[in-house]
Amino acid sequence: MNGQIILDPLLPWWALALLAAAILLGGGVALWRGLSGWALRTLAGAILIAALAGPSYQREDRNPLSDIVLLLEDRSASQRLADRSARTDRAAEALGAALEQRPNTEVRRVDLGDGQGDAGTLMMQALGDALAEVPRGRVSGIIALSDGRVHDMKHAPNLPAPMHLLHTGQPQDWDRRLIVEGAPAFAILDEPVTLTLRIEDMGAAPEGVETASLDISLDGEEPQRFDVPIGREVELPLTLPHGGRNVIRFSVPEAEGELTARNNSALVQINGVRDRLRALLVSGEPHPGGRTWRNLLKSDSSVDLVHFTILRPPMKQDGVPVSELSLIAFPTRELFLEKVDDFDLIIFDRYKRRGILPSLYLDNVRDYVEKGGAVLVAAGPDFASADSIHRSPLGQIIPGDPTARVIERGYTPEITDLGLRHPVTSGLVEGEAKTGDWGRWMRQIDITPKEGHVVMNGADDRPLLMLDRVGEGRIALLASDQAWLWDRGFEGGGPQLELLRRLAHWMMKEPELEEEALWAEATGQTMRIIRRSLGDDVGKVMITRPDGEQVEVPLTEVQPGRFEAEYEGPQIGLYRLKEGDQDAVVGLGPAAPREFEATIATGDVLQPVIGPLRGGVMPLSDGLPRIRDVRQGRPAAGRGWIGLTPRNAYETISITRVALLPGWLVLLLASAFILAGWLREGRR
């Protein structure tokens, strides 16, 4: 029960003040004139003013409510190091029992684990959700059992009561951590890229240890070991060995006594790209599509193009003085003997033997292909003539032989069954169709295949585009000079730009255009395994997990030549994939999850929310602190104790109100004082 006097005036307070002033003024005038009843009349006026103020006695029937203490129990990954989890369990049970023994106290226990993905410990979000479920006026304190490594401080709520951290660390805890900085997503092949590494010891690390071993492994191969200093940045120059994705794993052997080895390794995935792709375009007899290849290669900023057009062969005799010619001599020796290995691709566009390139030079080009180079022959009618480039040493590696027949009629190019699976031509038409809504070409050189793959057919299903591998290199034969019709939009055109771009990049060995390939795309802990093959079927992919355990995953064909599967990796780290003679590596998740970036227990992270309300940070290794009541605004922690602020919250059940000056009493008292004043003045 609780009672108090309240006022409920019938008039505004300013009106009551004016009435009170008038009554006092009248009483003063009466006193000045010597009237004997001035005091009685003033008392009567005071009673009337008091009645207008509406005084009453209000009595509340209250039900006291318990104080609420929030007990936050951190169950994140870093809390499972050493014996932190058991220490947290024991402390939670003991604190829960001690708090429940306190009068008028209720305990709300809140468990929090790892955030989704690699979000870390989201204590502030859990605390905000818990505060939203209880009246803030009843919260007398917040106690957190944690290592203090919180990763969502930007979401810290305003606290209604002091917060205390009882951290689970030990004085002797220490940990070693590997940090890789400055790792780019892309790097240029054959050029060094510098990574910055640092090995640092945290906590009570052993004294006198100045170096640590560092193992470096590329694409899952045997690692190389180096000794690096501890606590200092080390710059590591690295040259990528191949194009595409390079997976580099850095690791430090686990030291005796450190908390965890989960932060002793780092995975870096860098895509190797060519700085510049150098192409040599040799154009023979001019024709309407002569600029097709030039425009294609010049439009790609990553291609350096050297283009020569043979406008004046040696046998041409037109009587023009040499001094009046603005043409330059074809630098055949420099290009085809001295500099041929500097090019990634050589294109012969309607080139025929004119005595400019001796057989020795073309034989050198053949050797260039066998050693890893690439040659594309875009054939015109001259390819079927006696001066054909096929009748040179290059003919030994060209995948088709001309029959000397030139087909001069319209036809629509179509993709072969094999072409639907080949990365150069797959996807040019939708589904499993062999042709799209394409315009016709008007000329084709009849050839007889002898090697390689026919990926496109032309008139009468004769080979139109053939691809082949020769030694370490590649060669392609396009048996028509009419691709420019698509570029001009003839009869609707066709995918000329995409086809020629893919063809050029396949010949320059871009990894994404390999016929036989295996790779994986990682999203969190899920990998999408992709296998591309020219075959009709592939086997299961053998996955070797970071712990060495192996599992087989079947693949499903999602489109011609492309097989896929999804696999949820149970662990964080490096996975090795193998199917047939294809293998790949992929890293899932961060090598060192956020929970293990810093593992030494601390109160510094939570200080912004603990400090303002004067809470405390104490190690559980010193034992459980005592619990005291403290007034709001006073220090809430001291040596060996933490404080809770009693809230004295209550619930009002009923309210009773009684008027102190009922109307009959006001009338009686006011009338009595006025009558008494009149009688006193009348007797006088």
From TrEMBL:
It comes from the Bacteria. InterPro entries: Class_I_gatase-like. The chain crosses the membrane at residues 12-31, 38-57, 658-679. Keywords: Membrane, Transmembrane, Transmembrane helix. This is Glutamine amidotransferase domain-containing protein. The lineage of its organism: Bacteria, Pseudomonadati, Pseudomonadota, Alphaproteobacteria, Rhodobacterales.
